[in-house]
Design goal:
By secondary structure, the chain is mainly β. The protein has strands at 4-7, 10-13, 18-24, 34-39, 46-51, 57-59, 67-72, 77-82, 91-97, 103-104, 108-113. A hairpin with a 4-residue loop joins strand 7 and strand 8. The model has no long low-confidence stretch (mean pLDDT 94).
Length: 114
């Protein structure tokens, strides 16, 4: 069974940076995308960034110009470089392996103080 393991969350001051990583186990050949979603207390889970195997990227408007997603197909990993962090970025960040797998990681906490 495929599993996802996230790392890299933490507590930073506004304007700081964090780099999230997610590794998928097993053989993966046909996923449409890997990416990141986040959920803040009292809010719905929302898309942050996704990237297809071919390198097509979609970002949420709120993170464009600040976050960069990348993927290594050979290693089945996806990374999210987060710069110029804001307090409103505070959330639990989940790695996602998209269709047909539809698997989610356990989440890694990102907290940004002002």
């Amino acid at each position: 069974q495929v599993q996802l393991v996230e790392s890299g969350g933490g507590l930073v001051q506004a304007g700081g940076s964090l780099r999230l990583s997610c590794s998928a186990s097993g053989s993966i050949f046909s996923d449409n995308y890997m990416g990141w979603h986040r959920q803040a207390p009292g809010k719905q889970r929302e898309l942050v960034a996704i990237i297809s195997r071919g390198g097509i990227i979609t970002y949420a408007d709120s993170v464009k110009g600040r976050f960069t997603i990348s993927r290594d197909n050979a290693k089945n990993t996806v990374n999210l470089q987060m710069n110029s962090l804001k307090p409103e970025d505070t959330a639990l960040y989940y790695c996602n392996l998209g269709p047909p797998y539809n698997i989610w990681g356990q989440g890694t906490q990102v907290s940004v103080s002002s």
